[in-house]
Hints:
Chain A is mainly α. In chain A, 78% of the residues lie in helices and 0% in strands. By secondary structure, chain B is of the alpha+beta class. In chain B, the strands form 2 sheets. Chain B has a 5-stranded mixed sheet with strand order 2-1-5-3-4. The site of FE2/S2 (inorganic) cluster has 13 residues of chain B, from loops. Protoporphyrin IX containing FE sits between chains A (12, 15-16, 19-20, 22-23, 26, 71-72, 75, 78-79, 106-107, 110-111, 113-114, 117, 171, 175-176, 178-179, 182) and B (214, 216-217).
Amino acid sequence: MSGLIKSSIARKVVMALSGLFLVIFLVLHVTINLASVISPEFFNEASHFMGYNPLVQFIMQPILIAGVIVHFVMGFVLELQNKAARGIGYVKYKGSANAPWVSRNMIYSGLVILAFLGLHFYDFWIHEMAYKYVEANPEDPTRYYAETVEKFAPFWRTILYVVSFVLLSLHLWHGFASSFQSMGVNNKYTPGMKSFTKLFAVIVPLAFAFIAIYHHLNPITH
Amino acid sequence: MKIYLKIWRQKDVDSKGKIVDYTLNNVESDMSFLEMLDVLNEDLVAKGEEPVEFDHDCREGICGTCSLMINGQPHGPDRLITVCQLHMRSFNDGDTIVIEPFRAKAFPVIKDLIVDRTAFDRIQQAGGYISVNTSGNPVDANAIPIKKHVADKAMDAATCIGCGACVAACKNASAMLFTSAKVSQFALLPQGRVEATERVQNMVRQMDLEGFGNCTNTGACEVECPKGISLENIARMNREYLSAAVEG
Ligand code: HEM
Ligand code: SF4
Ligand code: FES
């Protein structure tokens, strides 16, 4: 990808656009998830729509997967180039003196998110694909709520999810506002945007974590 | 006061360097940091040893020649100053001070603490100029009215002294702050608009060719810059670059 996109600024714009795209996707995702706490019926309806609407399944879902791949592959490319650009390292380097931890460790928060995405795909996506296309089960618009709640029965999965959401929060804390700077937007609205970023970086992952914990604590009893 | 020094010594570009320990017993708190190194070098010369090579010229914060990584920070712990403006009163009796050259693949070490920063010159040469009509009837720059706050921003960008602290501080050894200051000082002014498209493209291309890293927007450069060059300049360069790409 570094061969295709030769300029450092272009690479950062790709990073910013794919990141912002994922941010928008997170908003949609957390909204539907919140329904699972408020209204199981609505959650089932929304999940069924997302699962069977051809536009969502065959256009939006591939775009989303491509977006994730572009983002993390470019993240690795940038990280490798940036490491190489230092050459011989410092004996003493005081990174904390001039830049926040979150901004210096995007690759690590990103890697945790990537590992989480692996688990998350295994938990939900692989399951869905098998259910629909391999086992060729008939449509059942009422199954999603119970399936979701059941996923959070094991303590280990709930904890892994919550820890990942903390790292997502750290990633967004720097990333969201940073993407505007990458695209050349730095003006009188930037301080406001930075405050909004912090609010967003706390609220969205907190909502995800709340939902996971809620379902862990409120299993379906038959 | 007594100061323990750990200084990077390296014979030449091709040699492997190493940290060497020195102790200075009679450091005055009103000495400048470079005077402290002068005292060390006098000691070394008196003992028949090679003095520590370090870059310096004006010793008043305007030339951008001095360039030391001091305890992990370019130009040392204080803000908005160069090494030559740093004084020993910023340290305490008994402190250990680690002194290293600015590190970047694009800034190879020439000897000890001196690095080759001609990569910056090549970035500047790639587009950091304007065309002025010098034959016949040149127009006075002041004949073109420019808004005060725009002129101020251009002036702020132009205060970059090309020291390289931004590269040294950046975890990615990115030269975006330097390059963006050099792009901005022209881009903001009408005289600079003539070559604007080619300038940003050529300067960014040269910056990438030199092997500097990409920008993660950590902001370390802005904090460590002795001239307080703002990250706004990087955003402006990104805008200039994107609109140049659209213009083709
Ligand atoms: C839901 C998931 C994710 C979202 C919403 C997200 C969002 C963002 C945003 C908005 C940025 C800022 C871009 C910029 O500064 O221009 C960013 C940067 C970054 N992301 Fe992600 N990201 C996600 C997942 C990942 C993953 C899985 C990785 C895998 C390694 C990753 C690695 C990185 C890296 C390394 C950067 C910093 C790039 C740089 O500026 O040097 N991200 N992310
Ligand atoms: S931007 Fe600041 S730190 Fe970078 S070269 Fe110019 S004066 Fe030095
Ligand atoms: S010696 Fe000129 S700026 Fe320090």
